[in-house]
Design goal:
The protein is mostly helical. The chain contains nine helices and two strands, in the order ααααββααααα.
Length: 201
């Protein structure tokens, strides 16, 4: 798993070829890649929100209790896993127009590897400054887009021009999913305690 993480960050072209030859199963991908890497932003957010708190400017700070942060973390983790699956479904939908399209499982596997930079960018949530988290998220998204544009033509056995169209569509949907995820993140990690209290009262 760590070999692919390093390879995708350091030499993505070579790593995509190796990943394609492995014929990995969906179960193995989730067990050895997605489940572990998706935990990075969750664990870092848990530490950041319980130990440091979100700094919103003007001296405002929101800090969650351990229990509230645990509940938010579980939901956040499940949403991340679902987001990978949704992007895989989008790739599968786009792939159907080409001869010999990959299976649904293969598309989700591809999406899981493409999301690697986004997972890693979650490390900054250990010290949850909004501008820092946004900067890391943008950098992670840019490198994710780069991996997507590099990998799609080889993955679908199509030209770079066709790959650009598929990648752009997938990226567009991925950004929408990411925005929804970021919105949910702010609600869960920044205002989770207030939401829970308003529901219970």
């Amino acid at each position: 798993m760590l070999t692919h993480v390093w390879g995708l960050m350091a030499h993505p072209n070579r790593e995509w070829s190796q990943i394609k030859e492995e014929r990995e199963t969906l179960t193995h991908l989730y067990a050895h890649h997605v489940l572990l890497l998706a935990a990075i932003p969750v664990i870092c957010s848990y530490i950041g929100t319980t130990q440091v708190g979100w700094h919103l400017g003007s001296g405002t700070k929101i800090q969650l209790s351990y229990l509230d942060a645990l509940g938010a973390g579980i939901v956040f983790y499940l949403v991340i896993l679902a987001a990978v699956y949704v992007v895989g479904k989008v790739i599968r939908y786009m792939a159907k127009r080409y001869p010999n399209p990959p299976s649904q499982s293969q598309c989700v596997i591809f999406a899981g590897y493409v999301a690697t930079p986004m997972f890693l960018s979650g490390i900054v949530a250990v010290y949850p400054l909004i501008w820092l988290c946004l900067l890391a998220g943008v950098l992670g998204l840019c490198y994710t887009a780069y991996l997507l544009y590099l990998g799609i033509p080889s993955f679908l056995n199509i030209s770079k021009k066709e790959g650009f169209i598929v990648s752009s569509t997938t990226l567009g949907v991925g950004v929408l999913v990411l925005e929804a995820l970021l919105g949910l993140t702010v609600l869960l990690w920044g205002y989770g305690e207030r939401i829970i209290l308003s529901i219970l009262s």
